[in-house]
């Protein structure tokens, strides 16, 4: 049955196009979806590094195709959050793909810990589901045993989705795992204390990510660490100043990762 309210795809509206620093893909299931312009730098970097390693245009095309497939999986992760949020009556203003991952901007914060738990779990669950499906396809086709290009692409995508699913479940608030922790803890100690526990743990883990990223040569991890550090700090400040936000407040609620 066609959902008239949210068709699978529609063109971006003039309001969606207001941000000139993004490519507007259109509205997918009613949600404006865009790719930030800085994403082009990632593609250029992948193109240059693949060319300098392999000196082959086929390798460059494969590298870019693989990167786009991984980012499509990140997009599906964000839609996991957005569609479960919709089930709880929370719409998503837009989804943006950035070089460090995706962002779903929910129109309000889930006031019920149960909603936060399911919205948080949905993103990583999408990636773990994709990993399991592609692994089954690979085994069914016998491609893993025979090796070759298909096996390389499939195993690469299985690995990437496992990493996306498991990394986002690390309990570093405001990453998904941190939100799961907060939702579970708030049943026992209330939302304010649960936010403090999750945000403080997020900050400790951010330091760990930062050190790992710096010494392991992973610049993206350093960016994620900075994001987690500042976002956890902002959330700590918020609960200190305004312990009980009015239910259904209409601030845009940024759901990263
Ligand atoms: Zn997520």
From TrEMBL:
GO terms for molecular function: metal ion binding; metallopeptidase activity. It comes from the Bacteria. The chain crosses the membrane at residues 28-46, 58-77, 117-142, 149-170, 209-232. It is a multi-pass membrane protein. GO terms for biological process: proteolysis. The keyword Transmembrane helix applies. InterPro entries: Peptidase_M50. Keywords: Hydrolase, Membrane, Metal-binding, Metalloprotease, Protease, Transmembrane, Transmembrane helix, Zinc. One of its GO terms (cellular component) is membrane. It holds the Pfam family Peptidase_M50. Its cofactor is Zn(2+). PANTHER family: MEMBRANE-ASSOCIATED ZINC METALLOPROTEASE M50B (PTHR39188), STAGE IV SPORULATION PROTEIN FB (PTHR39188:SF3). Belongs to the peptidase M50B family. This is Putative zinc metalloprotease Rip3. It comes from Enhygromyxa salina. The gene is rip3_2.
């Amino acid at each position: 049955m066609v959902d008239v309210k949210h068709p699978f795809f529609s063109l971006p509206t003039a309001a969606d196009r207001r941000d000139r620093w993004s490519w507007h893909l259109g509205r997918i299931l009613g949600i404006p979806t865009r790719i930030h312009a800085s994403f082009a730098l990632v593609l250029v970097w992948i193109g240059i590094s693949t060319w300098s390693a392999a000196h082959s245009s086929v390798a460059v095309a494969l590298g870019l195709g693989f990167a786009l497939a991984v980012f499509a999986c990140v997009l599906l992760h964000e839609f996991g959050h957005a569609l479960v949020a919709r089930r709880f009556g929370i719409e998503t203003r837009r989804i943006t793909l950035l070089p460090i991952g995706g962002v779903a901007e929910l129109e309000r914060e889930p006031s019920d810990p149960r909603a936060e738990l399911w919205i948080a779990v949905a993103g990583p669950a999408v990636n773990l589901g994709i990993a399991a499906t592609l692994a089954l396809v690979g085994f069914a086709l016998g491609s893993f045993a025979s090796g070759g290009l298909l096996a390389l692409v499939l195993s690469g995508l299985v690995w990437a989705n496992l990493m996306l699913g498991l990394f986002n479940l690390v309990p570093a608030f405001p990453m998904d795992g941190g939100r799961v922790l907060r939702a579970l803890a708030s049943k026992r100690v209330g939302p304010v204390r649960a936010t403090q526990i999750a945000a403080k743990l997020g900050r400790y883990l951010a330091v760990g990510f930062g050190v790992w990223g710096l010494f392991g040569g992973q610049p993206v991890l350093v960016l994620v660490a900075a994001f987690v550090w500042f976002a956890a700090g902002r959330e700590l400040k918020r609960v200190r100043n305004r312990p009980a936000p009015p239910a259904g407040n209409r601030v845009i609620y940024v759901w990263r990762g």
